[in-house]
Amino acid sequence: MGVGQDLLNVPFPKMIYDMAMAIAKGQLALDKSSVNTLKILANTKFDYIPEITETLTPRPFSPPSKPDVTITGVDVHTDISPSAKLTLLQAGIVPTFYQFTESIIEVKMSISSKTETSSSLDVGVEVTASADFLFGSASVSSHVNYSTASKYSYSVDGSSLLRTTLKPAPPPQRIMPRFITVNALESPPKITFSE
Length: 195
Known about the structure:
- By secondary structure, the protein is α+β, with helices and mostly antiparallel strands.
- It has helices at 3-8, 12-43; strands at 45-48, 52-58, 74-80, 84-87, 97-131, 136-169.
- It has a domain at 50-81.
- The relative contact order is 0.18.
């Protein structure tokens, strides 16, 4: 198996498809959660106090031990305006919407292939000669030792990284109501005509 085939075997189309489907499902779940939060904010009411007035009036006094020394004191009178029922949405708490802004698929592969071949050849010749009175003889012997060894190693290491960036986005304008406050508690101003 070659290195090129290993690279072709990486399932890029499936990885991209799986990541896109995961982002789509995640985006749908986030949008549903934000819309549900919007409903809760629109239906949760609290007592809103629009104004608290503190009136400070001077109250000088002299301590009994030193009647000739005047200490400036202050009286605080607090007036609380009537409360009104408001929803959390009217108070300005808005749901957070999120969107996926960037997605990265990174695949790293390390492929190594190694082949080792070794061989050895050992040749030996041995000659033995003997001489007699009438005849001479000789013998020749030879030996051949041949050995070969082959080693083959192949390894593939791989890792993949899927990274996506999620950022908050402003709520869609069409789902956010526009609040118009009309104060019907105050009496209209009196109009007088002079002759």
